[in-house]
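Is this the right way to post structure tokens for a design question? Let me know if I should format differently. Anyway, here goes:
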């Protein structure tokens, strides 16, 4: 088996900013370390972009938008996206290795990521040639022709978190390319490598210099992008707190904003559920990606007649999960992304214990010789959690399940909705009438019935309440990158 040192030996990792088609250092000359969360070792140095670099990138995007990129027809944009899809497919192992090294995603879980990454690019390629306005019959006096056209919103600033670096980069950049926008991506400082490599592939696919720019950096870079008066739209995925600051920053030039923010998703298991399906799905609704998922079904509501049986089976399933080196194919849970995130999750576990929740499984950092230098946390299940506990109210973003018993349908709907979030939710029942009734009453952007965390690029995704606004995937996604211009022509 290859070690992390073996994988890195002789490999050149991306470390410079991508601005106007060139790999360049930060204006300040500063760099920051990117860390392998499985070993705690430094992978390399990455240029630390700030406001000056954002200025350079936005200016490059504006020049490209008003220059060669503006002459690309829809079919030209489609060809570029299809070439990019082919390149991602050809280089996927290298791209995902960067995700493994940068944020610890297990190599054994990559097949669905490959399918999704390539499918996203080909889907947006298909939309590039289908964007259109409409001809409208009007009630105006005389002969007046009225119609609409779709135009790119302009320069897009995109800001991503670290929990799925490659896929999230595609999710921002592909619709921008399909609609004819130019983009500046600020990836998370914890995981900048795959976004930088993907930006280079955009150039190889034929995207003109300046259309796609990638500027790693810290909070100052993200703030500068959100505030920038020559940025026409911000597309943000991340915490609700940062999303709120982006809304405030957008007021300067009233830029368009779309936000996919935090979640504390309810996963509701009724007494008639198929437990053979519901138990493993409820576990992996949280433990996939080591719990670093905004959709995590971390509030697990189980109807009282099956509560004890369900938790017994859930605990057994959790104990059998393999936590370890993400380069080992049998690993199911890797590390969390950073020492800071590990400390944060462990603090929540301590809060759960202190508040009186019953710890069934896990509950600590793995610190044996095989894991001591990495940021590994045991998958953890708390039982008998009260709705008012911090672990039941706040997004943990780690491998922690909070199990809560319930008695009636009305009760669980009230409790499931009693949160400031509204991103996703699950319903487990064999009664289709129950599923339809409950689905309509839950205040969430996505509802899964007898499944969890299934995402399709053609299906819109987004939140209610403080989980954000706007939609990603589907036809609604590209509309986020388009203006509608109305045209009225007197033909008398």
């Amino acid at each position: 088996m290859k070690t992390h040192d073996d994988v890195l030996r002789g490999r050149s990792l991306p470390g410079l900013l991508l601005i106007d088609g060139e790999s360049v250092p930060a204006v300040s000359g500063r760099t920051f370390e990117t860390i392998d969360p499985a070993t705690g070792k430094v992978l390399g140095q990455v240029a630390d972009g700030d406001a000056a670099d954002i200025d350079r990138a936005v200016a490059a995007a504006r020049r490209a938008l008003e220059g060669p990129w503006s002459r690309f027809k829809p079919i030209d944009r489609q060809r570029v996206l299809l070439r990019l899809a082919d390149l991602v497919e050809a280089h996927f192992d290298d791209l995902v290795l960067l995700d493994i090294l940068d944020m610890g995603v297990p190599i054994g879980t990559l097949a669905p990521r490959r399918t999704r990454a390539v499918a996203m690019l080909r889907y947006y390629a298909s939309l590039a040639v289908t964007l259109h306005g409409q001809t409208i019959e009007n009630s105006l006096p005389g002969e007046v022709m009225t119609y609409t056209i779709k135009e790119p919103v302009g320069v897009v600033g995109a800001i991503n978190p670290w929990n799925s670096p490659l896929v999230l980069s595609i999710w921002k950049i592909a619709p921008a390319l399909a609609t004819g926008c130019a983009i500046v991506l600020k990836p998370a400082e914890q995981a900048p490598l795959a976004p930088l490599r993907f930006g280079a592939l955009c150039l190889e696919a034929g995207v003109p210099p300046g259309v796609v720019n990638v500027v790693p950096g810290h909070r100052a870079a993200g703030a500068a992008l959100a505030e920038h008066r020559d940025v026409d739209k911000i597309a943000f995925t991340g915490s609700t707190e940062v999303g709120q600051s982006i809304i405030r920053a957008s007021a300067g030039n009233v830029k368009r904003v779309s936000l996919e923010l935090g979640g504390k998703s309810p996963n509701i298991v009724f007494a008639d559920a198929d437990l053979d399906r519901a138990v493993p799905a409820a576990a992996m609704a949280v433990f996939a990606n080591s719990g670093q998922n905004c959709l995590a079904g971390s509030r697990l509501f189980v109807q009282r007649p099956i509560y004890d049986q369900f938790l017994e089976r859930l605990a057994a399933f959790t104990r059998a999960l393999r936590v370890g080196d993400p380069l080992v194919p049998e690993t199911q849970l890797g590390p969390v992304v950073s020492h800071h995130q590990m400390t944060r999750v462990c603090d929540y576990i301590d809060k759960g214990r202190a508040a009186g929740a019953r710890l069934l499984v896990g509950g600590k950092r793995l610190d044996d010789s095989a894991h001591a230098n990495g940021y590994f946390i045991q998958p953890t299940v708390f039982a008998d959690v009260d709705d008012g506990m911090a672990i039941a109210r706040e997004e943990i973003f780690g491998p922690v399940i909070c199990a809560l018993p319930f008695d009636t349908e009305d009760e669980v709907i009230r409790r499931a909705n009693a949160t400031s979030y509204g991103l996703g939710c699950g319903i487990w029942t064999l009664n289709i009438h129950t599923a339809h009734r409950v689905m309509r009453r839950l205040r969430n952007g996505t509802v899964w019935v007898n499944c969890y965390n299934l995402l399709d690029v053609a299906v819109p995704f987004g939140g209610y309440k403080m989980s954000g606004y706007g939609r990603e995937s589907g036809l609604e996604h590209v509309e986020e990158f388009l203006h509608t211009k109305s045209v009225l022509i007197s033909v008398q």
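Format looks fine. Someone answered above. Worth noting: Residues 266-457 form a domain with the Aldehyde Dehydrogenase; Chain A, domain 2 fold (CATH 3.40.309.10). The two ends are 78 Å apart (CA to CA).
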